[in-house]
């Protein structure tokens, strides 16, 4: 469930069915990018599935502004985790494919 999406569209928070709270921040230092850089495809309260687009970003505009495209994905309530194992280290990432296997307490 999308629990929050910033007005600019550069960041959003979601909550998984297991209760994990996740923050996704598209790019580094992108909160001040011009209107139109990010297009929100969902709203707060939307239910989403793995691989479903939630934001469309103008990557060329971000690059031209000399901003990093690195996109941190942070688990905010790590106290729910007992383990985290990378399953795709060193390989290409595709929408809907897991990056990690998470063990919940």
Q: Which descriptors would you attach to this protein?
A:
about 100 residues; mainly beta; two-stranded antiparallel ribbon; 1 helix; about 5% helix; about 30% strand; globular
Description of the structure:
This protein has 105 residues and is mostly beta strands. The protein contains one helix and eight strands, in the order E-E-E-E-E-H-E-E-E. The longest helix has 6 residues, at 59-64. The two termini are 21 Å apart.
Q: What does the overall shape look like?
A: globular
* Number of β-strand runs: 8
Number of helices: 1
Sequence of secondary-structure elements: EEEEEHEEE
| Amino- and carboxy-terminal Cα gap | 21 Å
Query: What is the mean pLDDT?
Result: 88
Largest sheet: 4 strands, antiparallel
Tell me the strand order in the biggest sheet: 1-2-3-6
Brief overview, please?
The protein has 105 residues and is mainly beta.
Tell me the layout of helices and strands.
Blueprint: E1 2-5, E2 11-15, E3 21-25, E4 38-40, E5 55-57, H1 59-64, E6 73-75, E7 81-86, E8 100-104
Antiparallel strand pairs: 1-2, 2-3, 3-6, 4-5, 7-8
